[in-house]
Amino acid sequence: MLAEAGYPNGFEFTMYIYPLAGLPESVDIGQAMALDFESIGLKPNMVGTEYGRVKKLRRSQDPGLNNSLMHVRAQTQANRLLDGYRTKSSNHIFQTARIDELAEQVDATVDRAERSKLFRELGDISFYDHAILQMFGVHGQVAVNPAVVSEYIFPGPVSGVLSHLEYIKTVPQ
C-alpha cells in the first residue's frame, strides 16, 4: 500500500512520546506503535518530551504534530469535532475553512435536526479527509472501596483526570 501511495521506501515522521497523568503507559504504547510502524516500512523518529511542550506546539498549529501520540480524552465525538478541528480551538489537530463555517453554524442554532445535519457534515469531513487516525483506545478501570462508594459510573476513556464525579453514590456512614 505504501508503494501504491508513492512511498516505496516508506517515509520518516516525528512521533512525540510523553507520559500522561492517569496514563503512565502512554510512553510504552507510543514505543509499541513505533515498532508497528517500523514493521511496515515507516520510519518514526521518536522524540521524548513532556505533554505541556506538545500542547504548546499544538497551539502553534504545526501540521507535523498530527503524528504525535495523542492522548485519549473522555468526550463525545461532537465535542472532539468542535474542540479539535476548528481554528479557534486550543488543540488545532486538523482544520479547514469549511469546518470553521460549520462550527459557527452549530454555535448559532439549538435546533436538534439542524445540529444533527451540521455534525454529520463535520463527521464526513473528518472521515473522508482522514482528520484523525484512531489507532487504539485505552479504557481505564476505577477501583473503589465498597464500604465508602456504592456506585461510580465511569465513562471509560482515560483522560488523565477522573471525571463524572457528580455521579458517585456514597454509602451512608
Comma- or semicolon-separated keywords:
single chain; 173 residues; alpha+beta; two-stranded antiparallel ribbon; 5 helices; 4 strands; extended
Structural summary, described in words:
It is a single chain. By secondary structure, the chain is α+β, with helices and mostly antiparallel strands. It folds into three domains: 1-71, no CATH class; 72-137, no CATH class; 139-173, no CATH class. It has helices at 26-39, 51-59, 77-84, 97-107, 112-128; strands at 12-17, 43-48, 149-151, 169-170. The protein has a two-stranded parallel ribbon. A two-stranded antiparallel ribbon has the order 3-4. The longest helix is centred in the C-terminal third of the chain and has 17 residues, at 112-128. It is extended and about 65 Å long. The chain starts with 11 loop residues before the first strand and ends with a strand.
